[in-house]
Amino acid sequence: MNDRVEKLIDYxxxxxxxxxxxxxxxxxxxxxxxxxxxxxxxxxxLRKGNVLKVDRAVQLLEQRKFLVQPDPIxxxxxxxxxxxxxxxxxxxxxxxxxxxxxxxVYVKYITQDIIDASRKLYERQQDIKTxxxxxxxxxxxxxxxxPKNFIKSKRxxxxxxxx
Length: 163
Fold this sequence. Notes:
The protein is of the alpha+beta class. The protein folds into two domains: 1-38; 42-153, Trypsin Inhibitor V, Chain A (2-Layer Sandwich), CATH 3.30.10. The chain is 54% helix and 13% strand. The protein has four helices and five strands. Strands 2-5-3 form a three-stranded mixed beta sheet, with helices on one face. It has a two-stranded antiparallel ribbon with strand order 1-4. It is elongated, with a radius of gyration of 36 Å. The model has no long low-confidence stretch (mean pLDDT 77).
């Protein structure tokens, strides 16, 4: 074996070293207990189908001794088009996680301006889709009708008198 490894093994077998390790583990456990008393769980407030207003979210988080900062969403997105003004979208920290008291929590919410802009964006995209579908239909009609027109032009018209 390597000399360094043998020295470490000899050192670990020393009773003084074992006592120090045990004291360190006990001290670490005491520190964990002290810190866990200071920790609070972020409540699970956002659920599917549940509309949570920013005022209520701030109130609930402040009751649990968190520092709360409302943070409005500034960028439009199609998924925001059916939301309500002041609706909370997310938190910057995971719900249900334990964090220490007096931690700053950002509450992200939506404003009516962004909702309106998101609706306009959705309508524009729907118009583009509709136009693409109509163009595609026209192209298909041209492709389908092209052989028919070619065949019609090659045929000679029959004289009604010859019949």
